[in-house]
Specification:
Elements (H helix, E strand, L loop, with lengths): L2 H24 L5 H25 L11 H24 L10
Length: 101
């Protein structure tokens, strides 16, 4: 499997976990915070692996066309969002479904 396929499958897994976390948090199911932690940790690990694969395969030298906007605009926004989620999870580690959103 080439690097781009591995990166794509990692992104798919991260997206599916994020959707599961949203459902758990939205309906205030038990273990919602744990699922949010799991989604963010897996996504963080996926970013590290994707960065390594992209660098080792020299994917930045490929012609990206319009996908360059994803790398330059969308990915930094996702990074900021993940930092905000991690800071919220660390700030309120024991807050369950009883608090306000």
């Amino acid at each position: 499997m080439d690097a781009m396929s591995k990166i794509a499958y990692g992104d798919l897994a991260s997206a599916l976990l994020a959707l599961v976390a949203v459902l758990f948090l939205r309906y205030r199911w038990s273990h919602a915070i744990a699922v949010a932690w799991l989604a963010n940790v897996v996504t963080g690990a996926d970013w590290v692996l994707a960065s390594y694969l992209a660098a080792s395969s020299q994917l930045a030298t490929y012609r990206l066309g319009g996908n360059r906007y994803i790398a330059n605009c969308y990915v930094p926004v996702l990074a900021v969002i993940h930092v905000m989620i991690f800071s919220r999870l660390l700030k309120h580690p024991r807050r369950g479904g009883s608090g306000s959103a």
